[in-house]
Every structure is written in structure tokens, then in C-alpha cells.
Amino acid sequence: MGCDMPQKPIVYDAPTPQPRANDAETLRNEILEKLTYAVGKDPIVARRTDWLTATILTIRDRIIDQWMESTRDTWRTSQKRVYYLSLEFLIGRLMRDAVSNLGMMEQVREALGSFNVDLDELIEREPDAALGNGGLGRLAACFLESMSSIKVPAYGYGIRYVHGLFRQEMSDGWQVELPEDWLAHGNPWEFERRESAYEIGFGGSVEPVTQPDGSVRQVWHPAEHLNAVAFDTPVVGWRGARVNTLRLWSAQPIDPLLLDRFNSGDHIGALEESAKAVSITRVLYPADSTPAGQELRLRQEFFFSSASLQDIVRRHLQQYGDLGSLPDKVAIQLNDTHPAISIAEMMRILMDVQGLAWNEAWKLTKGIFSYTNHTLLPEALETWPVALLERLLPRQMQIAYAINAMVLEEAREKGLEDSRIAAISLIDENGGRRLRMGQLAFVGSHSINGVSALHTELMKQTVFADLHKLYPDRINNKTNGVTPRRWLMQCNPALTRLISERIGPDFRDDIEQLIKLDAHAEDKSLQDQFAGVKRGNKERLAALIKERAGISVSPDALFDIQIKRIHEYKRQLLNIMEAVAQYNMIRAHPEKRWVPRVKVFAGKAAPSYWNAKLIIKLINDVAKVINNDPAVRGLLKVVFLPNYNVSLAETIIPAADLSEQISTAGMEASGTGNMKFALNGALTIGTMDGANVEMRERLGPENIVIFGMTADEVDDVRAQNRAPREMIEASPTLREVIEAIGSGVFSPDDRARYRSLMDGLYDHDWFMVARDFDAYCAAQRKVDTLWSDRTVWNAMAIRNTARMAWFSSDRTIREYADDIWGAPHI
Predict the structure, then answer these.
(1) 408 in a structural domain
(2) Please, are residues 569 and 667 in contact by the beta-carbon 8 Å criterion?
(3) If you ran DSSP here, which 8-state letter would residue 129 be given?
(4) Alpha-carbon gap, residue 203 to 343, rounded angstroms
(5) pLDDT exceeds 60 at position 256
(6) Does residue 539 form part of some domain?
(7) How many CB atoms lie within 10 A of CB 428?
(8) Which member of 80, 167, 486, 570 is catalytic?
(9) CA-CA distances (angstroms) from residue 173 to 219, 417, 615?
(10) Does 11 have pLDDT greater than 60?
(11) Which pLDDT score is estimated for 273?
(12) CA–CA separation, 149 vs 354, rounded Å?
């Protein structure tokens, strides 16, 4: 079942409603009306969640006016559209974002105040949309907001997860995964579009059908069918410049088929089939450690890719009537390898459904697709067993084989040797035949981009070295950015006001003007005001830490923050080991004037990633000992805040003094947390990895603390395959830390809990934790010295904020629009 096509031509000059007034009195009346007639509550008994819904619906009405006008404008002017396909969109709470971007914050605050309702309290009650996990999903959200802000006509396509990843709680220091029920009370931002529903198939067989002209057309007969139903959320740009659409797909069974089975007496079978359909959009990243988990994840990726492509082709034909103009009017960006099956699926749609010949379909496909690579980690560059694909997606696998044959033939014609051809192949023959999704995305796209200068160069040298030789003009760099609206103006309003007072408010519309603040970095009065803003933010974080973790911390201490997905290459282990070293030094040398520190960790570990979950437990075990040792005298506190999400980040980041960006060099593609911290006046301690390299160039090496091995040095050490045992034995501080953790000093209930974790440092140390430890400790002592001279520190903090404008996602999106998409923008 495809979506219904309109029976009559679209009328572009239809009358539009008059824009609604935004004064406080009008808003007050409309909020009351929504509360009464949409929510069905009397103000006397209305709860805060009722007021939240009524306020969202009132704001949403104003967004809809601009949303429809944005869509009409794109149709009228036949502008090229961008379609951003991502398995994650970590959009966070939307109300403050929308109200702020529409410039209505004070009016809404006044309107609600007349009912004795506090706007900030309502903002805190809105649930975070559980549509992502980490940097990949938050980047997609920043990009969507920037596309709206600079007027790029765009759709975001993803999955409407019922539970998202999981809600993280702690049980005796261990991570516990619980369902994230963010949709339990509905989502007033979204619109269900039942008319935009597409049939998605799995399994079955492929039948060759001879056409009247003698050609053979392949017809896929799926064994399973389900519906992808669209739910649309408006994405508001700055000043309401444009409203684009985030379209999320929900999997639903095709009811008539199940009803027949149920009525025929197959009650259990019908219910199982329904549950199987719905399970596709239930959770983000189902564990793929089992064959069933792998199959569910592949089903997810194909489900949202196929629905999105069917929607794109339908919309294009509806407006233009032919497929030849696809590359002129459509740009599809694949956000990592998750939607890479789109290459084969688009070929199927163009050939099997629309009747195009192979060569024409391939030309169109390459013309519309581009691919962003986010990782050099082999496990993150997805591959799928060929046998699974042949069973689940037989026609798409046929097409993948045909693409592979064409690419390998091209490689032979260009004289590549056999060993290089095997590396280029879409089929990995080592240890079981698997389809390489990175290769599929690469060969089917006209542009492949990395997300930082270092990452892009490493991509050319490592994972795509041979494809780069075959197609030397395809790889380009687009360094990531973050939206300054959410990550400065909204999450840090006090700092935004201070900047406006000092350099004027124009930077809000042109973030490049933030550099004007640089000239004031040595101004003592500004330094004092800047530090005052930071302290206020730290007081709020201290209150949150007390509420959620039960730990009292001083806002006068240095707030040292590492918040990100828990992974060994991000090296939370290095950070907590240094905390143990500092703990030992404080106890051994109580006569020294130690800089008080609060080390804050937050992040989720994948449910099946044992070492990551063990590191969380270690952080909590170390915290329990350090925080309760009277010999420390409160000079060091360690905190792990559970259930890290966008809203928690919005409280933590403005309060940070020190930003931990300490990944193993060559393993972090870019990072965007590093940008958010620096924009809010935190100093960075980090390796020469990801976007840290470009941040060092923009900030100046004197305003960032860099330590550790380079990516080339990491490669050399790994190539030598030498265990770091001698180096560990030569470092008394490191040896003492490893022995304390490994012997159970911090785990008296289980002395062997961390033995294997510490033994791994002696045996292989793949992530260079031991090898970088001494350099990291020295860098932390440099941080202590800088903190001790608050004039120096505050000047550096101000320069960090002033020089971060280049890392705006507006700049990144303009580069995408100009260099890859050929899309309009301002």
C-alpha cells in the first residue's frame, strides 16, 4: 500500500490565515482556551503537565503558520530539497527551543505568570525525546535546526522509537537499563500523517518477468508486509526564518491481513505477527550480539530507509512528474552507514517500480546520494551477513551483487592489483561473507565526507584507502558544528546577556561577531562578571548533584567534566585512574595547597558492552571511597550522574570549568561536546584527536591543554605490538594506581572485580591508557597551575567563548549546501 496521491492539482495561492499576535494578553487567552477545549481541564484543577500541553499547543499554532508557508514557498519556487536520513535525532526538549527561536520567551513567561505558572518549571517537565544516544543523533538535531535557520529546504527522516535507547539508573553502582517511556503521555509536537503510509516488505522471493520489448524486469514478492506511518514534527529556525520537517516512521501491522488470521482461529499467530511489526520501532539499537538482535537491527535500518525513499520519490513525482530531474531537485544525505541500504533500495525503486534501465538508475542514484562517515572503528562500520540479507532482502542483495561486479570491473580496468580489488569489494570474504555497508554507501554516493580535518585524512589512509585511490575526488571534509541557539543562548542565558551587554546583541543573528569579545578578554571587570555567571551555573549544577546523587559539592571547586557515551576509546578509565592518583597524592602530601576539584561523569554504556559497564561501576566505587574519606578534606569529589541526556547536558555544560576530551588519538571522528564546552567558557584538556586539532588552531595553543600521543604515534605503537609492561613498571604513580584498583582497594566486596581490567593494561593497552597516563597527569597539574591564577584562567575562558564561532553548525550546513547538495540558503 502506497500513500494516496492527491486527486486534484495543488493550489499554491490558497489563502493563508493571518499571523497570530504574540503579545502576552493574546497568548494568555489562547493558553486558557487550549487548556479548556484541547486538554479538557478547568484551570482550578489543572496540573503542570496540563499547562505544559496547553502552552505547547498555543506555540505550535504559530509554528504551523510558518511551517505551511515554508512548504508553499519551496513548491512555488521549485527549490532543491535536502533529505537527511539518520537513525538518531537527539532533539531534546522542544518547547524552550521553539519559544526562544520565535523570540517569544518573555511574552510566554508573562502570560503564564498571570496564572501563577512558572515557564521554567514547565520547561523542566517536558520529557526528552528518546530518539538518539550520543553525538551522531545530537549532530543530526543541530543540523536540522541550522537548516531551518539558514533557510535550507529540508526533511529529516528517522524512526519514531517508542522507548529509544533506555533510561539509565544505578543499582549499587551498576548501570541498570529500564524502558524510556517518553511517549507515555503523548507528544503534542507531532502530527500523525496516516495518508503518508508506505508498505515495507521482508523476505519472500524475486521473480524475473519478461516485458513486451524482451527485457527482463525483476519483481520482488515479499513474504512479510507492514506499514510505515509518518509522524511529523516541525523544526523551527532562528527568528522563525523557516520551519522544516522531522518525519519519523512508526511500524504498524497491516490490519486486514491480521484480522483474517485472527478470525480464522490463528489468534496467537496474528498477535505474534502484530508484535513483530511493532517491535521494529520499539527501541533504538537493539542488542546485536545474537542473530535475532542482528536481524531486528537490519529490519529497522531497511524499514526507515525504504519508507523515506518511497516518500521522496512520491513527492518528487507529484511536483515534477518525471525522474530525470531527481539530482537537480533532491539531495539525500546518509548519516553514517545505518541508512546505507538506501543505495540498493533506491535502485530497486527506480528499476523495478519505475521501470528505468540500470545505467540510468545508477546515474540518478549517485547524483542524489552523499554519505557522511562518522567513525574509523571497524565495529561501527557496519557489515551484515550475506545469508541474512539474501533471506530478509533478497532483491536488494541481488542489486548489491550487481553493483559490486560493476565496481570491481571498473577497478580492474584502472589497473588495480588483485589485493587492492579484494579490499574494495563490497563483499568481505574473511570469516564469513558479509556485505560492507560503508563500501556500499561510498560507491553509491557522489560525495563522502569526514567530520573533522584529521578524521577525513585518516579516512583516506585507512578504512577507505583503496576506494579513495579508485575515486580520488569523492572524499571531502565538513568539520562538525553545534547550534549556538541551544548551546549558548538557551542553555546559558546569563552568559548570553553578558556578551550582549559587552559587544551588543548582533552576534545572536551573526555568530561570527562573537569574536568581538576577544578584545575584552583582559578586562578585569568582564572577567569578574564572566566568573560570576559561571559560579551561578555551578551553583545550579551543585544543587542538581545533591538532588540526584546525594553528594554535596562546592561551587568554588574546579568543575572537571567528562560527559559522553561510555566507551573504552573515550577513556573514562584514564580519567578515573588519574582521580585515584590525585587521591593518593592528597593523602600522602596534606601539606600542599591542592586545587579543590569536582570530577563529574555521565554517559550510558551499551547494554552488551561489559567493559564499559564495568568502568561505570569503577567510577562509582572510586567515588564511594574518595567522597567519604576524611583525609581528603573535601578537596576531591567524584560524581556519576545517571541517565545522561540533552537536558542534563544543558545544565552541566554551562557549569564546566574543564572539558575532558581525552580520546585515544585517531579514534574520535570529531566530537561536538568539545565545541559546546568551549563555547560556554570551559578550558579543554584533550588529545590531538578529532576536532580538538582544529579547536587548537582556532583557539590558539595557549588556550587549550593538549597532551599525549598523536594518531601517528598510536599507529606506530600498535604496529610494534609491544606490551607496555616495562613502561608501567617505570612509572611509580601509574603502578600504584593499577595495583590499588586491581587488588580491590575500591571493591572490598569483590577484590577481583577489576583485576582483568587492569591486567589488560599490562597485556595490550589498545587504547593507550597506560601509555598516556603520565602525560595526562602532567597536563592535569598544568591545569592546577592555571586555575591558581584566576586572572589568567578567566582570560583563557573568555577567549574560548569568543573564538568558537567557526564551530557553528550554520557554517557546517552552508558548506554542505554549497559543496555537496547544491541547495539554496541564506
Answers:
(1) no
(2) yes
(3) B
(4) 18
(5) no
(6) yes
(7) 16
(8) 570
(9) 54, 54, 10
(10) no
(11) 65
(12) 35
Contacts of 149 (CB under 8 A, 6+ apart): 101, 237, 238, 239, 241, 242, 483, 485, 810
Give me the number of domains the chain comprises: 1
Residue at 768 is within a domain: no
CA distances (Å), 272 to each of 277, 294, 746, 819, in order? 9, 19, 47, 48
In contact, 235 and 244? CB cutoff 8 Å: yes
For 78, residues 6+ apart whose C-beta sits below 8 A from its C-beta are 319, 320, 329
Tens digits of residue pLDDT in 461-492: 999 999 999 999 999 999 999 999 999 999 99
- For residue 209, give the H/E element and its range: strand 205-210
Residues 159-195 as b/e (b if ≥16 CB within 10 A, e otherwise) read bbbbbbbbbbebeebebebeebebbeeebbbbeeeee
Residue of 96, 565, 771, 814 marked catalytic: 565
User: Residue 8 carries which DSSP code?
Assistant: S
445: DSSP letter: -
User: Residue 692's domain is classified under what CATH number?
Assistant: 3.40.50.2000
**Active-site position among 53, 281, 372, 672:** 672
**Does residue 225 have an active-site annotation?**
no
CA angle 121, 123, 124 (to 5 degrees): 65
Nearest to 24 by CA among 106, 121, 122, 115: 106
Cβ(774)–Cβ(767) below 8 Å: no
Q: How many Cα neighbours within 13 Å face the side chain of 4?
A: 6
Q: Which helix (H) or strand (E) holds 29?
A: helix 24-37
Write b or e for each residue in 567-586: b if 16 or more Cβ atoms lie within 10 A of its Cβ, otherwise e. bbbbbbbbbbbbbbbbbebb
CB-CB contact of 644 with 563 (8 Å): yes
The three cell numbers of residue 251 are: 511500524
785 among known catalytic residues: no
CA–CA gap between residue 701 and residue 695 (Å, rounded): 9
Cα 319 to Cα 74, 76, 148, 329, distances in angstroms = 11, 10, 22, 10
The 10s digit of each residue's pLDDT in 631-687 is: 999 999 999 999 999 999 999 999 999 999 999 999 999 999 999 999 999 999 999
Contact 149, 482 (CB under 8 A): no
Q: What is the domain range of residue 619?
A: 500-715+775-813
Exposed, middle or buried: residue 75 (CB in 10 Å: 0-12, 13-18, 19+)?
A: middle
pLDDT value at residue 677: 98
Distance, in Å, from the CA atom of 154 to the CA atom of 147, rounded to the nearest integer, reads 7
Asked if pLDDT for residue 255 goes beyond 90, the answer is no
- Please tell me the distance from the alpha carbon of residue 367 to that of residue 328, in angstroms, as a whole number: 9
Q: Which helix (H) or strand (E) element contains residue 558?
A: strand 558-563
Among 207, 205, 257, 201, residue whose Cα is nearest residue 224: 201
What angle do the packed helices 358-368 and 394-413 form, to 10 degrees?
90
Task: Answer yes or no: 414 catalytic.
Answer: no
Pairing of strands 369-372, 447-450: parallel
Is 672 catalytic? The answer is yes
Give the pLDDT confidence of 529-573 residue by residue, as tens digits: 999 999 999 999 999 999 999 999 999 999 999 999 999 999 999
Rounded-to-integer distance, Cα 763 and Cα 41, Å: 65
Q: Nine-digit cell at 532?
A: 560570576
Is 298:87 a contact under the CB 8 Å cutoff? Answer: no
- Name the H helices within 378-417: 386-392, 394-413
| Residue 692 maps to a domain | yes
Query: What residues form DSSP beta bridges with 243?
Result: 236
Catalytic residue among 348, 676, 753, 803: 676
* Residue closest to 103 by CA, chosen among 537, 508, 488: 508
368: which residues sit within 8 A by CB, 6+ positions away?
A: 326, 327, 330, 331, 332, 346
Q: Is 564 a catalytic residue?
A: yes
CA distance 78 to 94: 29
Is residue 374 annotated as part of the catalytic site, yes or no? yes
